[in-house]
Write a structure and sequence with these properties.
By secondary structure, this protein is α+β, with helices and mostly antiparallel strands. The chain has one domain. The chain is 20% helix and 42% strand. A two-stranded antiparallel sheet has the order 1-2. Strand 1 and strand 2 form a beta hairpin. It is globular. The chain starts with a strand and ends with a helix. One of its GO terms (molecular function) is ATP hydrolysis activity. This is ABC transporter domain-containing protein. InterPro entries: ABC_SmlMolc_Importer, ABC_transporter-like_ATP-bd, P-loop_NTPase. Keywords: Transport.
């Protein structure tokens, strides 16, 4: 299980993730969708780092 609580990420003065809370359960498949610039790749990079 991956649990994210109150994740905030900014680039200069732009918040791309603001107090984000997510739980990814083992054995399930998830899709992260949203418009360009909404923080999808940033979220995946943060998860990959940890």
């Amino acid at each position: 299980m991956i649990k994210i609580k109150n994740l905030t990420k900014t680039f200069e003065d732009r918040k791309v993730l603001n107090k984000t809370n997510l739980t990814f359960e083992n054995g399930k498949v998830y899709a992260i969708i949203g418009p360009s610039g909404s923080g999808k790749t940033t979220l995946l990079n943060i998860i990959e780092y940890y």
